[in-house]
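User: If you would, consider this record:
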Amino acid sequence: MKIVVFAGGVGTRLWPLSRKNSPKQFGKIVGTQSTLQQAIERLLPEFNASDIYIATGEKYKDIVIEQLPTIPKENFIFEPTLQDVGPAIGLSSFLLEKKFSHEPVAIIWSDHIVKNEVAFRQALRLAEKQILDAESEFIFIAQKARFANQNCGWIELGEKINNNDTAAIFKFKRLCYRPKPEEAEEFYKNKNFVWNLGYFVSTPKYLKTMYKNYMPEMYEKLLKIQATIGTPDYKKTLHKIYPTIEKISFDDAILVKLNPDGFRVIASDLSWSDIGTWDALKEALAQDKDENITLGSVLLEDAKDTLLFNYTNKLCIGIDLNEVIIINTDDVLLVCPKNSVPKIKKFVEKLDGTIHEHLV
């Protein structure tokens, strides 16, 4: 099986740590490695480095190669511009289809925390077996819900097919996009709903067919790029055509249009967290809701449910804090209530075109 790890997002919601020139997946947010390096490390006990591919923006070429010396250089897929996930998955699928048309391929992301690494690798192998045994052509890998999560999509499960030691396989019923608070509560109470992580296993051939059926204009452009793979014209063609492809998510480009008959869902407890926002990162690191999470030179007194990350040598002190996010870097200090975290992305967008644009 081949695995494509996507590492092209900007991660504005985790600003000021994550920025255009230094996105979160390359930063040491948790531990001594970047989340990209952690994503590769959790794969290597089970998969060969030669079977792992990295898809990212060309602007991040140097840092990606530097952080991942064990990945063969020919396994890096560089996008000349960031065109959203729909074109990104399409480009990777068309490139792999040239050599590994019918081989299982897993699509995963570089900016997540997965604490139960053994269960994660087992789920990937189980999905691979489903493909090889022709049980399904498209398998989601999902997380059993831990709370009423509004920051990710959900999957409604159909009939259970069989039980594995660590994961159950279900028929796929439908996708539910980021829900409103009351919807998330209903999903959480209903055990037929699980979190959609954006992880799936299919084959390059099947993915290519999906683009042909549901995104014909994008398909034709990707086909022209694919035709030049291994020739001197590849880079020139890629740079000419790829930026003209419509910016669209994979969900909107493909998944919402699919007939889900035959799709499968592997539901497991991966201890997965998307650290795309500061409140989500706090949830991932805390043992309970009221616990404070700190990094760097920090002292707290009478604080509760607060995250304070200090990336400077200056001592940061917090007193009588409740549900507060504080991020202190060399050039930016961010302070906001935890429930205001969703406003960060739009605020950062307002900095474009101002004297503070260099901080974006």
